[in-house]
Specification:
alpha+beta, 3 strands
Length: 134
């Protein structure tokens, strides 16, 4: 294992998975392999243990974790908007998908892309974003 990347803050646990002490907030860390790719499951450390694991001060870790959490929340909000807009026409006709995708949402199709493929891609991305909750 080569290190970690900060994924956000989680208040669902009150114990550091590294040292076992009680904590106020848990920093969600994703382990990275030697090539810098995400590997394994997210671990939840207190800010002090996360700082030690990353070679940084706990204040920096807290700041980065809050920024990562805010980014995830913005991505999740966008994903919920996509689901609300496109799930009703997911199994509808091409005409219905076109109406929502192009006429209502003002999107443009990429060259050679079908509206069905575009809608399916947005729905898959939205679902993956929400499934990856920290």
């Amino acid at each position: 294992m080569a290190g970690f990347i900060i994924k956000g803050i989680n208040d669902d646990t009150d114990q550091c998975e590294h040292c076992g002490t009680r904590i106020k907030r848990a920093v969600a860390l994703m382990p990275l392999d030697a090539d810098g790719n995400e590997e394994g499951d997210v671990v939840y450390y207190g800010t002090t243990c996360a700082g030690r694991a990353l070679g940084r001060k706990s204040a920096w870790v807290t700041s980065q974790a809050r920024a990562a959490q805010a980014k995830w929340e913005a991505d999740a909000e966008r994903a919920r908007e996509w689901l609300a807009a496109y799930e009703p026409v997911e199994f509808g006709s091409t005409r219905e998908k076109f109406r929502v995708f192009v006429l209502e949402r003002h999107n443009r199709l990429r060259e050679g892309e079908s509206v069905s493929r575009a809608v399916a891609g947005l729905l898959a991305t939205a679902r993956a974003t929400l499934a990856a909750r920290v």
